[in-house]
Design goal:
- There is one protein chain.
- By secondary structure, this protein is α+β, with helices and mostly antiparallel strands.
- It is built from 1 helix and 11 strands.
- It has a 4-stranded antiparallel β-sheet, with no helix packed on it. Strands 3-4-5-6 form a 4-stranded antiparallel β-sheet, with no helix packed on it. Strands 1-10-11 form a 3-stranded antiparallel β-sheet, with no helix packed on it.
- The radius of gyration is 17 Å and the shape is globular.
């Protein structure tokens, strides 16, 4: 009986972890590191780090999950690629989306004319990336 209880506990824990792996919102000071992604609620689009083709450079972009691999619809740092996997995307307390490199230097940032008191970043199913006030 104890073995069954342990197995059920492990299965429940795995299910919870698996569900939490797909998030469509981050809050201020949360990060998305290279290898992690933000996925829209309907699982249609994904935001994360990628390298096009055989390039060693890393970019932050949005791509459709249901279309062939490599179909990127938006790139944040197209003019300033990162040359390793040290990139970190973060939302500041002021509601600015910032991409940092290994030395914590700003590679790219959003240019918002408004700030939110409690900002969240949300990836929508239509591939829009929205910074908005938390509910």
């Amino acid at each position: 009986m104890e073995v069954i209880t342990t197995l059920l506990f492990c299965f429940s824990l795995f299910s919870i972890l698996n569900l939490s792996a797909s998030v469509d919102i981050i809050t201020a000071n949360q990060t998305i590191r290279d290898g992690e992604t933000l996925v829209s609620a309907g699982q249609k689009v994904e935001l994360g780090f990628f390298s096009p083709g055989l390039s060693q450079y890393r970019y932050v972009g949005i791509w459709y999950k249901t279309v062939a691999t490599g179909t990127v619809v938006w790139t944040a740092n197209r003019e300033s690629p990162i040359n390793d996997t040290s990139g970190v995307l973060t939302l500041t307390n002021q509601g600015v989306l910032t991409l940092l490199n290994s030395t914590r230097g700003v590679v790219w940032s959003s240019n918002s004319s408004r700030s939110a008191r409690i900002p969240v970043l949300q990836l929508l199913d239509n591939a829009n990336l929205v910074i908005r006030e938390a509910n």
